[in-house]
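Lab notebook, bench 4. We co-purified these components, and the gel suggests they stay together. Before we commit to crystallization screens, I want a quick structural picture of the whole thing.
Request: model the full complex, all chains together.
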Amino acid sequence: MANFLEINNITKYFKLGNEQIQALENIHFEVASGELICLIGPSGCGKTTLLRIIAGLEKQASGQILLNGNVIDATGPERGMIFQEPRLFPWLTLEENIAFGIKGRYEKRLLQTVVRELLEIVGLNDFAKAWPSQLSGGMAQRAAIARALAADPLILLLDEPFTALDALTRTKLQNDFLHLWQSTHKTCIHVTHDIDEALILGQKIIVMQPSPGSVREIIPIPFTYPRCPDEPDFISMKKKLRDLLVTVKEV
Amino acid sequence: MKASTNHERDKSTTLSGAFTKPSNRQSITKLFQGLALPLIVFILWEILSGSGRLNVYLVPPPSQIWDRLLTVAGNGQLIKHIGISLYRVVCGFSLALCLALPFGFLLGLLPGIRAFLSPSLSFLQQIPAIAWIPMFILWLGIDEASKIAIIVYSAFFPIFLNTLHGIGSTDPKLKEVAYTYGLSHWGLMSRVYLPSAAPSVFVGMRLGLSYCWRSLVAAELLGASKGIGYLIQEGREMAQPDLMLVGVFVIGIIGLFLDFVFRRLEKKFLPWQEKVDTKEVPRWQIS
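Here is the predicted assembly.
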């Protein structure tokens, strides 16, 4: 598979008072088309910052990101971002929220069909006219996923999208998301700090470490889907990941 | 993705309540609840006046006020005064809206300019409109212009400040969502800033309208030949306390009606607000 997304030597600094803190140091990896990558690391390792740079919401100090051969230097509809919170517009109904990014791209009738299809995919067809304040957390996050899919992006960027949900809803949405990925084969970069979630979803897990944020190891996960957290292989991989995350790399 | 297992439960708890409108019976009950207190007060008042415990000249009984109301309503006086007062409010309020909305928008979007303007605006905001009445009369004459200027002045600040606040407090997280879709500046303004500020703008307009009434009546008391304020002044000059009270009550009733109209408009234009609490200071805390 050709390299679809190339992250080349990304470095980023943050200002904290008068001090300059290195948030990311020489991040370098590649993502193939259709791949589901999980980015895992302890808090403060810069995983969200990296995702925001890919989305174009923040600028790197040096380095380059190429998507399909094009340099990324701003936000764009070909990258769909899903945040930790649903971030639905409270003044728009569910269907209007989903149509937000594609309004004007299609004529009215077609737009309606596209939105209906997306509502069907995320299982919210009965709630087309509901206001976001009337939805539960899980439903709102589904709607956010539908909104990101609406623009038919080349890549989905997910910033801990299931963290704020209760355990049951989270498991449910993880499974649903997996089905969604298997049927659409969108390239996905999924940021998480949950080892189980990374192992259930990722084809590849990129382990990051803090101060300064950098890639510690890239681990391919060979297990077939759907994955069972009780299997010995899964458990031993989980131990390996936990060790990587809690121990500090020796210099 | 398919619907989650708690789909049905969510539907019954969060949606059925939200989609049903209050029934006719509920609104009639609410109306009676609201009318109970004034009714009791009026009845007590009437009884006390009838038994001679109240000075009828200082506190005319409700029946006498009602008679006076029917007289001025019958000879066309009342409608003429209400008409002219409403005309002034409508003119002044619309002008204030035309000034305050764009101004509030601009300053909300450009926080850099705020530092230059906000001390002066805070200074002006401290001065009640009534304090300007003599100066406005001096500059603009005793005719309509000075009265409308006072209304503009008093409606401007609540509308302006609430618009500014609404624009300024647009959720940066929602702005980010809009950025990721590559919205233009215009798109960002009309599709994110404007709807996000709309509830604040409405609060500002309702406040502004009630401020208008206050200062208008003051202006009409000080120098006018028509209007509800003048009606009260006329009552004073002719020693007719019942006429003064007619004026006072009419102001309250019109204010109530206008506020009702605004609430209705708000419901129509901001249906999503119904479930969200409007963060408004209760009326009686502002003066």
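The radius of gyration of chain B is 24 Å. Worth comparing against the SEC data before the next meeting. The first helix of chain B runs from residue 7 to 19.
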